[in-house]
Structures are given as structure tokens and as C-alpha cells.
Specification:
By secondary structure, this protein is mainly alpha-helical. It has 10 helices and no strands. The protein is elongated, with a radius of gyration of 46 Å.
């Protein structure tokens, strides 16, 4: 134990500093810290010893010790009473010294000092709220960007999958058409080969070909329905995208509109030139007609807007 760190020595120094009318109050706090850390006060007697030696409660002693830890001897706070020091310590560390210097130079009362501190804390609270608001806005923007990116990715993936599905179904349909034509030719040849009665073997082959042809036609109808459904889903998806539903649109450009038009025509461009329109069921032709009407109305609306914008530009330029 240091020769200076004895209970009697600490008590003498506390009494000396207490005589300074709180001018050396932080030194009292440092003495209390020293006594606490050196464990020179008998066990269980700390509170009574603080009251007897420093004339203060345990709570006041804790505040004083805390101030002694945080305030250096060179600080302007060292020249203030503990009540003012405690008030200043409520501020963030970078703001404390300037407030302490002003309090010493202007000899501010505790009320004046507290008013200054309250104003500063209000400004700091406003700044903190602004920072929090900016942080929330930044996080919201990041979340929106993430949703935009995910939405675009999902949209493009779904479009690609549907287009691929349509291409596969179209290829399968063509293959089935080839198979059906081959079966019809085989069936015709088998029937023409039997000019004078049909043997059991020949009839069995004809029946087999008829069954195979029926299966092929049924599969072709199924593939046609699947392709129609995929085309409808693709059209619905692009319609939602055009309306801004379920995805976020890129900026409107002539290139974007042209790409969309070419993509659509490239996907279903075979329809206007296909003789199959004549052989489709009435319900299928009506459905295709409704799509055509929808596209026609959309094109008319676009032309109206474009022409209105062109006229507006001309008027503004007059």
C-alpha cells in the first residue's frame, strides 16, 4: 500500500479540500475513489464513513466520484460546484468544455446554466431525430430498391420462362402435326390397299392407325390449350407491367415501346398468316379477336396521347 494511501491520510486530505468551499470538490471525489479502490475503509462501514468524513450521502458521493473520473484537473468544470458539474455531464463529451468555460466566465447561476444545457440538449435531440429520420429514409430507399430489383428479376424470369414454354409447345405442336399427317397417309394407304374386302390383320392395322390418330389429335388439342394458356399468362403479365402492377417500370422510351412491340409480334406473329385460324373453334377465334380489339384500343390511345403531346409542343413553340 502506498504510504499516502492510509485511511488517516485520506481523511485529512478530504477535510482540507472540504474547507475550500467546494473549490476543490473534485479532489474530494478523487480521495473517495482512492479510498474505495484501496479498500482501506472497514467492511460495511463505507456509507457511515462517507457521511462522517465528507458530510454527504452515499448517493452524493457516487455522483462526486463519477465527476472526478470524468473531469480532468485542467478542465473548466474543475472550477465549478458539483451541482453544475453534474448538469454539464448530462451533455455529450464534445460539448461539455465550451459550456463549462462559458459558465465560469459569465459566472452563470445553476438556473442559467441549466437553461443553456436544456437548449443544447433540445438542439441535439432535434439533430438526433433528423439523423434517425434520414437513416429511416435511407433504409426505406434501400428496401424499395431491393424490392424493385427483386420485382424486375422475377418479372424477367417469368417472361423468359413463359416464352420458352410457348416455344416448346409450338415445337411440340408442329411435331404432332407431322405425326398426324403421317398417320393419315398410312391410314389412307392401308384403306386403299384393301380393294376387295379387308382381312383381320388389315382391319387391326387400320384400327390401330385410327386410334393413334385420335390420340395424336387429342394431344394436339391439349398442346394448343396449353400454349394458349401460356400466351394468355404472358399477355397478362406484360399488361400488368405496362400498368405498373406487380413490378416497377423502366423509364418510358421509344426503344422500350419498340422492343415490346417487336417481342409481341415475334411471339405471335404467325397468327395473322396461319390458315389454322380458319380451323379454330369459335370460342378460340372469339378469344383471339378480343385480344386484337384490346391491342387496337391500346394503340389508338397511344396515338391520341402522342398526337396531343406533339400538338402541345407546337403550341408552346409558337
Amino acid at each position: 500500500m502506498n504510504e499516502m494511501t492510509t485511511l488517516q491520510n485520506i481523511e485529512r486530505r478530504i477535510a482540507l479540500h472540504m474547507q475550500g468551499a467546494y473549490a476543490n470538490i473534485l479532489e474530494v471525489g478523487r480521495c473517495l475513489i482512492e479510498a474505495k479502490e484501496a479498500n482501506v475503509v472497514p467492511h460495511g462501514q463505507w456509507e457511515a464513513w462517507v457521511q462522517r468524513t465528507a458530510g454527504m450521502s452515499e448517493r452524493t458521493a457516487q455522483r462526486l466520484m463519477q465527476a472526478a473520473r470524468e473531469v480532468s484537473p485542467e478542465s473548466a468544470m474543475a472550477r465549478l460546484p458539483i451541482t453544475k458539474i453534474t448538469a454539464i455531464l448530462a451533455l455529450p463529451e464534445p460539448q461539455r468544455e465550451a459550456v463549462a468555460v462559458k459558465a465560469v466566465e459569465e459566472n452563470q447561476s445553476l438556473r442559467e446554466l441549466q437553461a443553456t444545457i436544456d437548449a443544447m440538449r433540445g438542439d441535439l435531440e432535434d439533430s438526433r431525430k433528423q439523423v434517425q429520420r434520414a437513416e429511416r429514409e435511407r433504409n426505406d430507399a434501400l428496401a424499395v430498391n431491393e424490392r424493385i430489383s427483386r420485382s424486375r428479376s422475377d418479372y424477367y424470369n417469368e417472361v423468359c420462362n413463359l416464352r420458352k414454354q410457348i416455344e416448346i409447345l409450338h415445337t411440340e405442336t408442329q411435331t404432332l402435326e407431322t405425326q398426324k399427317n403421317a398417320l393419315r397417309e398410312m391410314l389412307t394407304e392401308a384403306q386403299e390397299a384393301q380393294t376387295t374386302g379387308i382381312s383381320d390383320e388389315a382391319q387391326a392395322e387400320i384400327d390401330r392407325l385410327n386410334a393413334a390418330l385420335a390420340d395424336a389429335e387429342q394431344m394436339a388439342e391439349y398442346q394448343a390449350r396449353q400454349r394458349e394458356q401460356a400466351q394468355q399468362e404472358l399477355l397478362d403479365l406484360r399488361t400488368q407491367a405496362a400498368r405498373g402492377e406487380g413490378t416497377v417500370q423502366e423509364d418510358l422510351t421509344a426503344e422500350a415501346v419498340g422492343m415490346a412491340a417487336r417481342t409481341f409480334m415475334g411471339t405471335v406473329g404467325y397468327i395473322p398468316h396461319s390458315d389454322k385460324l380458319l380451323t379454330l373453334r369459335e370460342g378460340d377465334r372469339a378469344q383471339i379477336a378480343s385480344y386484337a380489339v384490346m391491342l387496337q384500343r391500346w394503340a389508338e390511345d397511344v396515338l391520341k396521347v402522342v398526337n396531343s403531346a406533339r400538338d402541345a409542343v407546337v403550341i408552346e413553340g409558337v
